Structure formats: C-alpha cells, structure tokens
Automatic annotation (TrEMBL):
Keyword line: Methyltransferase, Nucleus, Transferase
Subcellular location: Nucleus
Classification of source organism: Eukaryota, Metazoa, Chordata, Craniata, Vertebrata
E.C. no: 2.1.1.62
Species in which this protein is naturally found: Kryptolebias marmoratus
Pro residues bias spans: 159-168
Protein name per the record: mRNA (2'-O-methyladenosine-N(6)-)-methyltransferase
Biased composition (Basic and acidic residues): 685-696
SUPFAM superfamilies with a match to the protein in the record: WW domain
Family: Belongs to the CAPAM family.
Keyword set includes Methyltransferase: yes
InterPro entries: HSP70_C_sf (IPR029048), PCIF1-like (IPR039881), PCIF1_WW (IPR022035), WW_dom (IPR001202), WW_dom_sf (IPR036020)
Length: 727
C-alpha cells in the first residue's frame, strides 16, 4: 500500500552508499507567494500572509494570517510565533512590556477554536522564549549560541529581522548529541506492517497491562503465599518478546514454549520465602526461622510423598530447636545453618511447587494472548484502511545508511491531547490520563521527531504520538518506586563521547527516544519509536558495517540472543563492523552470554570495571531530578570488544584509546558524594549475604554499568584474534 509515510526521508534520508558522495541535503522550504499589498500593514507582514479584517461581533478590526490561520487583535510582530517553523509554540516571544499571555500573544477566539479545531490543540500556562529551528537544518540545536548559528537563524534573504531573536531555552544539562551522523550501513528494507499508534489503543493497552500485573500478584499470593519477585513481570515481558511472533508491541501472544523460563525461575527461587540480603545477626536469625517455618507449613498443606514430608519436617523442627537452645551464635553460624537447610529442603519444596508455578506462568501468558487479540480487533476498527500484505524486499536491495523504520499503513486522524507546562515539566493529558516529561527531554523529542518523521510536517500528530510514547514506557516500567528504570539505564555522557572519538561509535543497539545519546538507535517498540528515530528492535536489525555500542537490559535470555546475533553479523560481513558490549560481570553463577563472548573468536579485548567504582544514568532520566540522574553500580561491569578483521583494523582497542575510555569512566567530583543504587538494599564489601541465587543478580542489578571511579583499579585482558569459540 502506498501512502504518505513512504515519501522522501526528511533530515535522515536513506541514501546510496558511494565512495565519492554523501547524502544530498534537502533545500529550505518554499516561501509563500505574495498577494496584493494592503495599505493598512507593512510590506513584510503582507508577504508573511497577514491581512486586516473587521469583526462584526466585536465591532473592531483584527489581523488574520492566511498561511497559518492565526488571528490576533493587536498588530502582529514579525517572528512572534510561526506554527510552521515552531508548531508547538515553544519559541514564542513575550510581548514587549507586558505578559506573554496578552497583547500579541492573545488570540482572537473564533468558532473553529471554540469547537477544538485542531486534534492536538493545547494550553500553555507559561512560555519561555526559544530560538526556532528550521526543519531543513537538522544540525542546528535549539540551545546553540554560536555567532554563526544566530546569524543564520535571524537573517533571511527576503525579510530583514526587525529585532534580535529572544534568548533561547537552555537545558541545564544536555545528555545527548543529535548532531553525530551515522556510519551504520544496512540493506534497504520494505515498510513495516505494524499498526500505527493511537491514544485510544494505548490507553486501553495500559489498562490491560495493569490488570495483568494485578492478576500476577494475586496468583503468587493465592497459590504460593509470596509477593511476586521484584521486577520479574518486567523481565517476563523482555524474555517473551525475544521469541514472540505476535502482533502486539508489548503483550506476548505467540510464544513457544508457553511457560516462561524467566518467570518460572524467579518465582521458584522465592519459594518458600524470599531470601533478602542481611547485614546484622538478628536479621540472619529471623530469616532462618522464617525459612524453616515456611518450609514446614508448605509441606503440611500440600499433597507430597511421605519421604519428602519426613525430610522437610525433621530438618525444619531441628532448626527451630537449635534456634531455641543456642542464643550465642554469630551471623556466620546462622547463614551456614540456612545454607544447610536449603540444601536439605530445597529439592523437596521445589518438587511440590513445580506444578503450581507452571500454572501461574501459563495463566499469565494465556491472559496476555487474550488481551492482545482484543486490542488488535479494536485497533483495526479505528483504522481507515484495512491492513494489506507488505511488499517483499527487492531481489537486490541497495546498501544505504540506516534510517528509521517506516510504517506501511497511514495514520488516521488522532484525537486531541492537551499540553501545559508546570515549571520545567511538560504535562500531556488525554481523557484524564496525564504523562509527564521534563522540558529538556521534551525538546529532545521534538528534535528527534523533526529529524525522523516524514508524514507530519506540521506537527499535527506530534502531541498524540508523544503521549503514546510516554504512556508505553510508563506501562512497561511499572508503578513501583524505581521499578523498571533499570531497563532504560544508560552510559554517562563522557563515555559516549570517548566511544565516538576513539572507536567511531555512532549507534546504540539498545536504547529508546527517552534515553538515547545518538539520534540513530534500536529500541523495543518500532510502531511508536520509529517516529522519533528508532531503527527497530536490534535482533531484527542487520547492519553490514559500522561501529556500535550495546548496553542490553539485564535479561539473560535477551543477552544470549544478542550474542548469537552479534556472531552471525560478524561472520557474514567483510566490511568494518565493531560492537562494544557492556554487560554485568556475573560470575556466581556465570551467565551463558558472558561465557560465550569471552570465548568468541571475534573478541579483541576485555575490560573489567569493579563494582561501586562506576556509575550509570537512571532509566527515569526524563522525569527524575538532576541530583538523581546518576547512581553507582552494585555489580562489576565487563566491556568486551567484538570485531571482525576489518573492524579490528579500523577501530582497534589500542592502549591509547583504552586509556581515554578508562578516564571517561571516572565519575564527576560533583556527583561522587550522593551516588547510590536504586535497587534493593545491598551489603558493604566484605560482609556476608545470604546464599546467592540466580535471581538475586537480576533483582539487585538493573542496567549495565558505566563509569570507573578509579582508573588504576580497572583490569583488562587481551584475547588473540584466532581464539576458538566455545559456543
């Protein structure tokens, strides 16, 4: 199906790769044609589309712009607010000598506005001036203060600027660089068959996912008497989407096997109780007593074999008698006794709970599939055109620089989303549901949308799509304190700068429009993220050449699939290809993904960063306070350089490059006093915790770690180019 979403790519065009030329830039937008001059207005205002009219209702003149449909009571000032170059009104300058909400900023109320003419009309309580950006100049930042930028923005060939432009809005700190151009080359792709996002569907999806979380919580309580493992539902979504072949972007609906290994493993590890981390002797004594009591109660209430009942009851009663007799035991004695009790009772308890936990996993998946089917039916009923089969790729697709995912289906008219600002926070509301984002990231989303979206040049659908984007990630994160933020954690800006300078990195394999540093990235939701620059999920992205940074969510199944994809790409390409991977240094037990990368024949170098000596950016950076932006990693981080021969020749991890990368890991002195992990409570180094379990590492660590606090403490090891693979 052909539609307006398949036009030329604006700002980020898919161009032929040739050694002699680069992508051709798009020219400036055409100026509106002039009409007969009105003696009532200056010549430059008439050329801009303004004319003087008479209001019979108010019995006074007003001024109307035929290009923008804007009406003003006062004489317009050139450069006041142009809805074409500044669709959101973020750059409107206040009237001289008065409030910005009166004078030239006061619109004439017309019947069309009273009826809500625009689907995304919004209200704004406070407007700060900003320098407008032309859609045809994607390299210019709205907060740039370079003299040449100011001259280019204020001076035009046809209309002289009557006054200097207002002071631009300046974010306190910038966590991205959208000027970096990509070096990632792919084969041209057909449009994707995803259904375009819609606020009505996104609201219904949010309600169904919340309902599914509640079902999961109730099943864990009713069947096993435990709280769901922390963030296990979020990791279930990640693990399921790795193998899901269904249509919904968030809810799994077509997975094999039906029972999730991730959810099953995490729930089983919390039976009969969750072994929390402890610091003091009394906590260890209480934990041991609770475990013995819960194991005995579980065996008494289930249908088990006489042998299992005898073993568990005897060990539990023996432990309780020991606790009553011995009050002088140390913390280590209690922990040794707990480990012994787990070894004796654990297999019998797991055998009893196995069928029940499998029932929980199966029930949650079946509900998710039903919700997905219901959502798709509602979504199709809202579309103007029924979906059709997407045309296949041409026999020999061209090599092009990577470009955002394009949807095959056109977007129907979207309902109205209201926008207003509360201090430095942008608030978007749809049907009473409000989502928030700080103003700096809101400006970032506007820039990404300007670069990447090709079907909405007048930003008429921008607010609706931003609301869908924020709602999607809000639902994926969950509602708990700091819940889900680890799924969107990111490296510090200094590390990205070093990766770009020294290793030519221009692309993020796991990011989102909210936390990306470059404007080219892969993300989880191509249906909505593509309007803001996403190249789609990384496991479906097949670059031919380029330098990439990979910082995956800490889900073992996802990381294992990532390694398989890395090795396939490196083995198939003869062009320069490099992946710099950041994963947690989990050694007890070691993760399959880390073991495979350390034994890969493409491993060129490995850098280990100790725990508590580096930091990473919060996944909630778009809504958190500035002082909460960075926090320490509670686990070590391993940095692995996977490169083919051409990539190693071009971006080899030389000692000089590694030295600059290590230096970039050192946290800023202004942040070292208040860095902490948002995860569960952890013990100080040297203190003994409860026996580690595979789920502990997923619950206590949330995203890959970044900066090194002490360069001398980093350790690195090289790997020969021909090191055999252990896969």
């Amino acid at each position: 199906m052909s539609n307006n979403s398949q036009g030329s790519v604006k700002g980020e065009a898919a161009t032929m790769v040739s050694p002699s030329g680069s992508a051709s830039s798009q020219g400036p937008p055409l100026s509106p044609s002039t009409t007969s001059k009105s003696p009532e207005l200056p010549d430059e205002l008439v050329q801009a589309g303004w004319s003087k009219c008479w209001s019979r209702r108010e019995n006074r003149p007003y001024y109307f712009n035929r290009f923008t449909n804007q009406s003003l009571w006062e004489v317009p000032v050139l450069g006041q607010h142009d809805v074409i170059s500044d669709p959101l009104g973020l750059n409107a300058a206040p009237a001289e000598g008065g409030d910005s909400n009166v004078g030239n900023g006061q619109r004439k109320r017309r019947s069309s506005e009273e009826q809500g003419a625009g689907p995304n009309s919004f209200k704004r309580t406070k407007v700060e001036p900003s320098t407008p950006i032309s859609p045809s100049t994607p390299g210019v930042k709205p907060w740039s203060t370079a003299p040449e930028d100011k001259q280019a923005q204020t001076a035009t060939p046809t209309t002289p600027s009557p006054a200097p432009s207002p002071a631009p809005y300046r974010p306190a700190v910038i966590y991205w660089d959208l000027d970096v151009q990509t070096n990632a080359v792919i084969r041209e792709r057909p449009p994707a068959s995803h259904l375009p996002p819609h606020p009505e569907i996104e609201l219904q999806r949010a309600q169904l996912v919340t309902k599914l979380r509640q079902h999961y919580h109730e099943l864990c309580h009713q069947r096993e008497g435990i709280d769901p493992p922390r963030e296990s539902f979020n990791r279930w979504l990640l693990e399921r989407k790795v193998i899901d072949k269904g249509h919904d972007p968030l809810l799994p609906s077509d997975c094999e096997p039906v029972i999730s290994p991730s959810m099953f493993r995490e729930v089983m590890n919390d039976i009969p109780i969750r072994l929390s981390r402890i610091k003091y002797k009394e906590e260890a004594r209480k934990l041991l007593f609770k475990y013995a009591e819960a194991a005995k109660r579980m065996i008494d209430s289930r249908n088990v074999s006489p042998e299992s009942r005898k073993v568990v009851k005897w060990n539990a009663e023996d432990t309780m008698n020991w606790l009553r007799r011995d009050h002088s035991a140390s913390k280590e004695d209690y922990m040794d006794r707990l480990e012994h009790l787990r070894q004796q009772c654990g297999p019998h308890v797991a055998a009893v709970a196995k069928d029940s936990v499998e029932g929980i996993c199966s029930k949650i998946y079946q509900l998710s599939a039903e919700y997905s089917r219901r959502l798709r039916q509602t979504h199709l009923s809202l579309l103007q055109d029924p979906p059709t089969e997407v045309c296949a790729s041409p026999p020999q697709p061209r090599l092009v620089y990577c470009y955002p995912v394009r949807l095959a289906m056109s977007t129907p008219p979207l309902p109205r989303v209201e926008l207003h600002f509360e201090n430095d926070v942008a608030c978007l509301r749809f049907k009473g549901e409000m989502v928030k984002v700080n103003r700096g990231h809101f400006s970032k989303l506007e820039l990404l949308y300007r670069y990447s979206c090709i079907d909405d040049p007048r930003f008429e659908k921008f607010l609706s799509r931003v609301w869908c984007l924020l709602k999607r990630y809000q639902v994926m994160f969950g509602s708990g304190a700091n819940e889900g933020t680890g799924l969107q954690g990111a490296l510090p800006v200094s590390v990205f700068e070093a990766l770009n300078r020294q290793f030519g990195v221009t692309f993020e394999c796991f990011a989102s429009p909210l936390n990306c540093y470059f404007k080219q990235f892969c993300s989880a939701f191509p249906d909505i993220d593509s309007f803001f620059g996403s190249r789609g999920p990384f496991l479906s992205f097949s670059p031919i050449s380029g330098s990439f940074e990979a910082n995956p969510p800490f889900c073992e199944e996802l990381m294992d699939s990532m390694v398989t994809h890395f090795e396939d790409l490196l083995d198939q390409s003869s062009e320069p290809l490099s992946f710099i991977v950041f994963v947690p240094e989990w050694r007890d037990p070691v993760t399959p993904a880390l073991t495979r990368m350390e034994g890969s024949r493409f491993l060129r170098h490995q850098l280990n960063i100790p725990a508590y000596e580096h930091e990473y950016r919060s996944g909630g950076q778009h809504i958190c306070k500035r002082e909460d932006m960075y926090y320490r990693a509670v686990h070590g981080t391993t940095v692995l350089f996977l490169q083919n021969e051409a990539g190693f020749t071009k971006w080899a991890p030389t000692p000089e490059r590694l030295a600059e990368l290590t230096t970039a890991y050192r946290p800023s002195l202004s942040r070292t006093s208040s860095l902490s992990s948002p995860g569960p409570a952890h013990t100080a180094p040297g203190e003994r915790d409860s026996t580690p379990k595979p789920s502990d590492r997923t619950q206590s660590s949330t995203m890959s770690s970044d900066n090194n606090n002490n360069g001398s403490s980093s350790s690195s090891s090289s790997s020969p180019q021909d090191k055999p693979s252990t896969v």
